[in-house]
Specification:
The structure holds 2 protein chains of 2 kinds. By secondary structure, chain A is mainly β. Helices cover 0% and strands 54% of the residues of chain A. In chain A, strands 2, 4, 5, 9, 10 and 11 form a 6-stranded mixed β-sheet that branches. A 5-stranded antiparallel β-sheet of chain A has the order 1-3-8-7-6, with no helix packed on it. Chain A is globular and about 40 Å long. Chain B is mainly beta. Chain B is 0% helix and 52% strand. In chain B, the strands form 2 sheets. In chain B, strands 2, 4, 5, 6, 9, 10 and 11 form a 7-stranded mixed β-sheet that branches. Chain B has a 4-stranded antiparallel β-sheet with strand order 1-3-8-7, with no helix packed on it. In chain B, a hairpin with a 2-residue loop joins strand 5 and strand 6. The chains are: A mainly beta, B mainly beta. The interface between A and B is medium-sized, with 23 and 25 residues.
């Protein structure tokens, strides 16, 4: 069935450290994955995406890794800043429909 | 700012009432998606429209309906409201139909609905 879940509901890091947020998915047909950041009172904000024909993609201070063998997705944030504090969602799409299936989110707290 | 706008920002109403939420997609985007976010269910896809036509349905109740107008803005109508309908409602947009190719969806700021 379709499900996307997060291993850790909360993550607390020190400013300047690297953060890793993990996500597991169960739909082996999923071919597109996105990470969103949601700050309190705001809508989800696109961070980075990756298609299933890739295993790594880098953005500005963020890297997404995709391991299709174990159906695992991770978001790495380098030099985490207080402004990175938010809930992070992974989402997946199998391509056969139009909806995104979201995980439940991980709360990242960056301590100064 | 994603470029997606939603009104109103907050809405407080009573059980049994009907409300309409409005969304304007990013300039040039043809697809509009509606999502519901509640504490116990997370972000749930409700429905998608592309260029005025319904394209996909998710976990949308029969009491809820939506439409997309020729100017591409969309409205989500919620009727016979129940306490459990209290949630954040997000609209997202993307450029294309996503048929066989998934577009990134850009989200609006949401409408917080409180049903008393």
């Amino acid at each position: 069935g379709e499900s996307v879940g997060l291993h850790l509901p909360t993550l607390s890091v020190q400013e300047g450290d690297n953060s890793i947020i993990n996500c597991a998915y169960s739909n082996s047909a999923s071919d597109y994955f996105i990470w969103y950041k949601q700050e309190s009172g705001k809508g989800p904000q696109f961070i980075i995406d990756i298609r299933s024909n890739m295993d790594k993609r880098q953005g500005q201070r963020v890297t997404v890794l995709l391991n299709k063998t174990v159906k695992h997705l991770s978001l790495q944030i380098a030099a985490t800043q207080p402004g990175d504090s938010a809930v992070y969602f992974c989402a997946e799409n199998s391509g056969s429909n139009y909806k995104l299936t979201f995980g439940k989110g991980t709360l990242l707290t960056v301590n100064p | 700012d994603s470029g997606v706008t939603q009104t109103p920002k907050h809405l407080i109403t009573a059980t049994g009432q009907r409300v309409t939420l409005r969304c304007s997609p990013r300039s040039g985007d043809l697809s509009v998606y509606w999502y519901q976010q509640s504490l116990d269910q997370g972000l749930q896809f409700l429905i998608q429209y592309y260029n005025g036509e319904e394209r996909a349905k998710g976990n949308i109740l029969e009491r809820f309906s939506a439409q997309q107008f020729p100017d591409l803005h969309s409205e989500l109508n919620l009727s016979s409201l129940e306490l459990g309908d209290s949630a954040l409602y997000f609209c997202a947009s993307s450029p294309r139909d996503s048929s066989g190719y998934t577009d990134t969806q850009y989200f609006g700021p949401g409408t917080r609905l409180t049903v008393l």
